[in-house]
Amino acid sequence: MTVSAKIPRELKELMDRFGIKPGPIIREALEREVRRRLLEEAERRARRLGEELRNIPDEEIARLIREDRELR
User: Fold this and answer.
1) What is the dihedral of CA 57, 63, 64, 68, to 10 degrees?
2) 3-38: per-residue pLDDT in tens?
3) Cα(69)–Cα(40) distance, rounded to whole angstroms?
4) Is the model's pTM score more than 0.85?
5) Are 26 and 3 contacting, i.e. CB atoms less than 8 angstroms apart?
6) Other beta carbons within 10 Å of 30
7) Is 19 left (phi over 0), alpha (psi -120 to 50) or beta?
8) How confident is the model at residue 71 (pLDDT cuts 50, 70, 90)?
9) Cα distance between residue 57 and residue 66, in whole Å
10) What DSSP string runs through the chain?
């Protein structure tokens, strides 16, 4: 996939001056942002799961663990 973006002329001139290739930098920035959002999503899900698990009595959790161990 190809992505394009408009940048100020001065920035393009500076990129050329320093030999900066935008492709690898843009790719890295997008990968970093996707990782950040995946982590945020995982944290939200973990918090929701923790809230749900808080409502399960300890005895029920212990029973489920024992059942799982017996099945293995």
Assistant:
1) 160
2) 899 999 999 999 999 999 999 999 999 999 999 999
3) 32
4) no
5) yes
6) 11
7) left
8) confident
9) 15
10) --------HHHHHHHHHHT--HHHHHHHHHHHHHHHHHHHHHHHHHHHHHHHHHTS-HHHHHHHHHHHHHH-
**Which has the closest alpha carbon to 54: 63, 46, 66?**
46
Q: What is the signed CA dihedral for 60, 61, 65, 66, rounded to 10 degrees?
A: -30
Contacts of 26 (CB under 8 A, 6+ apart): 3, 5
Under 8 Å between Cβ of 15 and 22: yes
The residue to which tokens 């001056």 are assigned: 17
Token reading at 19 = 């030999």
